[in-house]
Amino acid sequence: MKLYHTPGAPNPDRVTFFLRAKGKLDALDLEEVSIMKQEHKTPQYRDVSPFAQVPALVLDDGTKITESRAICTYFENVFPDPNLMGADAKEKALIEMWDRRVEMMFFIQFATWFRNAHEMMAPLEVPQSAEAAAKGEKNAKKMAERINAHLADHEFLAADRFSIADITLFITCGFCRVMKWAPTKEHEHLGRWFEAMKARGFAG
Ligand SMILES: N[C@@H](CCC(=O)N[C@@H](CS)C(=O)NCC(=O)O)C(=O)O
User: Fold this and answer.
1) Cα gap 53→9, rounded to integer Å
2) DSSP one-letter string for 55-103
3) Ligand 1 centroid to 36 CA: how many Å?
4) Cα–Cα distance, 75 to 85 (Å, whole number)
5) Where is the GST N-terminal domain (predicted)?
6) Residue from 147, 150, 198 nearest 170 by CA
7) How far is the CA of 88 from the centre of ligand 1 (A)?
8) Atom of ligand 1 at shortest distance to CA of 55?
9) 3.40.30.10, 3.30.420.40, 3.40.50.300, 3.30.70.660: CATH of 2-78
10) Which residues are near ligand 1 (CB < 6 Å)?
């Protein structure tokens, strides 16, 4: 199995942090792809990932899997311990609920802000839109407040135990640095949760 990834980029980090939390990062052949050098846009890489995005997983039989969540689902089934996506119907639903909320209402909103506002993204987001940036910023900040309120009386984001939802939130909070925004400093409960997640060591 070969995993194409970009250390420091949030979607690839979601997968490598997930694998490290399972103790299985060393089980894979890893290949780095530089987004800033636009290596993900070469014909060779498009053959692996037709939408020219990282991460991408190629199985030993040649099957190509993209989408960070789908790659994590594959690894959850191949490496079931520790369970990170739910052990029964209720846990699976609660973990997926929070994971999707974080991805759609926080991560993607923040990414919309970043991609449309940061000069580093100008070559990749053509054309940038100030209106889209403002909307993404507003939505991301609203969701950070909501998550902070939830964490006031929860140790973990979903199902009262560590899960992929925590990993997705962790990479999102780290990603916020690129806009010089620190929701984990701004929000007390999010900050306490973030320090506890760092101490688990899955981010390397
Ligand atoms: N929904 C995809 C998104 C993948 C994605 O957008 N990856 C970013 C890196 S974090 C990328 O490849 N960006 C390249 C570009 O925008 O040209 C996933 O979850 O894997």
Assistant:
1) 11
2) -EEE-TT--EEESHHHHHHHHHHHS-SS--S-SSHHHHHHHHHHHHHII
3) 12
4) 10
5) 1-83
6) 198
7) 30
8) 20
9) 3.40.30.10
10) 9-11, 35, 40, 52-55, 67-69, 124
Q: Which pLDDT tens digit goes with each residue over 58-116?
A: 999 999 999 999 999 999 999 999 999 999 999 999 999 999 999 999 999 999 999 99
Domain residue extents for the chain: 2-78, 89-200
Angle at Cα 162 formed by Cα 190 and Cα 20, nearest 5°? 105
- Ligand 1, atom 1: closest residue by C-alpha: 67
Report which of 24, 28, 27, 23 is spatially closest to residue 5, judged by C-alpha positions: 28
First to last CA, the chain: 21
What is residue 42's DSSP assignment?
Answer: S
What pLDDT, in 10s, does the model give residues 181-202?
A: 999 999 999 999 999 999 999 9
Fold of the CATH domain 89-200? Glutathione S-transferase Yfyf (Class Pi); Chain A, domain 2 (1.20.1050)
**C-alpha 6 – ligand 1 centre gap (Å):** 10
